[in-house]
Design brief:
The chain is mainly α. The protein has 2 domains: 60 residues, no CATH class; 161 residues, Serine Threonine Protein Phosphatase 5, Tetratricopeptide repeat, CATH 1.25.40.10. The protein contains 9 helices and 2 strands. It has a two-stranded antiparallel ribbon. Helix 2 packs across helix 4. The longest helix is centred in the first third of the chain and has 27 residues.
């Protein structure tokens, strides 16, 4: 009678049965690469998928648990997401500015202020609050916050019961932040139509012209601004004190010219 033999170990050549060789311990069946998960032939020393070395003790494919390499993409993704969320929460908490006092400058730094609930504000307070939020984020280079809150601020502007020159100027600045220079110019025109000597009208026109790279319009806005500057500053309008930083910066630019 011919003796029946079992499978031959691909590593040492010994005859045996089961999942592992009784002589050397090498796997008798196909395994999975612990690095990339590709199927390995019995006895393979290197993975044909990733080229990584595989030892004789590789786990059979039928029972191979996910190795460290399998979990790495999920760990990295989870860590990155946690970092992004933490940064977002930190930014929102730290960059939440309060409404400025009547004579506060736009560019002046301030301390930490408790975040108010804008749902409890009047329409004008809500608009001013969101405007300051966008302006502060813009000064910090936080474009994500500018992009997020500018539409909210413009929506609040549309809900105002009455619109004065100061609000129109704020809306023009917001329009510039969205890249809508034509809308900013239109708001400047409405200011000039209502109050022909008011500096904010020429500031809105000039800012719009600068973004549109319209040098003739910018030069005209500068000339009109300087023409009315002395008389307007003597009028002691409260909005000029509130926006002193912006007014003076525009004046310096106007004196330098395009």
């Amino acid at each position: 009678m011919t003796e029946t033999t079992g499978p031959t170990c691909p590593a040492c050549g010994a005859t045996g049965a089961g999942n592992f060789c009784a002589n050397c311990g090498a796997p008798m069946k196909d395994t999975m690469c612990p690095g990339c998960g590709a199927a390995l032939s019995a006895g393979a020393r290197f993975c044909r998928g990733c080229g990584g070395g595989v030892g004789a003790g590789a786990t059979p494919a039928a029972s191979a648990p996910p190795g460290p390499a399998d979990r790495r993409p999920w760990i990295v993704a989870g860590t990155a997401m946690a970092a992004v969320l933490a940064l977002l929460l930190f930014t929102v908490a730290r960059s939440e500015p309060g409404l400025p006092p009547p004579a506060a400058e736009e560019g002046a730094p301030g301390g930490d202020v408790a975040v108010p609930d804008i749902s409890q504000m009047t329409p004008r307070e809500r608009f001013d609050r969101l405007y300051q939020r966008v302006l502060s984020a813009s000064q910090l280079g936080d474009e994500a916050t500018v992009t997020r809150f500018t539409p909210m601020a413009l929506a609040a502007f549309q809900m105002l019961d009455s619109v004065d020159t100061d609000a129109r100027y704020h809306a023009a600045v917001l329009r510039v932040h969205t890249g809508d220079a034509d809308a900013a110019r239109a708001l400047g025109d409405t200011i000039v139509a209502r109050e022909p000597t008011h500096l904010f009208g020429y500031m809105a026109r000039g800012t719009s012209a600068r973004w549109r790279k319209d040098e003739p319009a910018l030069r005209q806005a500068y000339q009109d601004f300087l023409k009315h500057y002395e008389a307007e500053m003597k009028a002691n309008r409260p909005e000029y004190a509130e926006h002193k930083f912006s007014v003076e910066e525009f004046r310096k630019a106007a004196e330098r010219g395009p």
